[in-house]
Recover the amino acids of this structure.
């Protein structure tokens, strides 16, 4: 009968291990359930949804504010670039007293060597054009 005693002892050991395992598993499940009960989103879902709605509103306002600031910054930058381009506009340059000379063939007069005494050139100024006769050609001295 020693085999029966060994079997009973083994069975008791298995029973004890099973009891301890079930007890530990049950405690773990109870702790998990307790943690879940304490979560606000599960215990009061409406409150959680309202809280998330408020958070969404706050983030939306922050995003709109940031977008508005970025838009204002880009608007100022665009205004500055437009002002620079406007200052370089050929018509604005003419408005400051400069003129553009054209040869009789319509090419821009960029050198005294492109015309001669007696030729007619056209000068474009801010408010119109002038036809002018060349009476003298004088090259700039390099010194």
């Amino acid at each position: 009968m020693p085999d029966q005693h060994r079997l009973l002892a083994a069975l008791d050991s298995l029973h004890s291990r099973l009891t301890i395992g079930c007890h530990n598993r049950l405690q773990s499940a109870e702790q998990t359930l307790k943690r879940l009960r304490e979560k606000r989103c599960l215990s009061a879902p409406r409150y959680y949804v309202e809280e998330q709605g408020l958070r969404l509103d706050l983030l939306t306002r922050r995003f709109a504010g940031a977008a508005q600031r970025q838009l204002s910054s880009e608007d100022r930058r665009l205004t500055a670039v437009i002002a620079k381009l406007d200052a370089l506009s050929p018509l604005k340059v003419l408005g400051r007293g400069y003129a553009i000379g054209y040869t009789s063939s319509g090419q821009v007069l960029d050198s005294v060597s492109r015309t001669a005494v007696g030729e007619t050139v056209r000068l474009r100024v801010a408010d119109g054009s002038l036809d002018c006769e060349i009476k003298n050609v004088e090259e700039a001295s390099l010194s």
The longest strand covers residues 120-125.
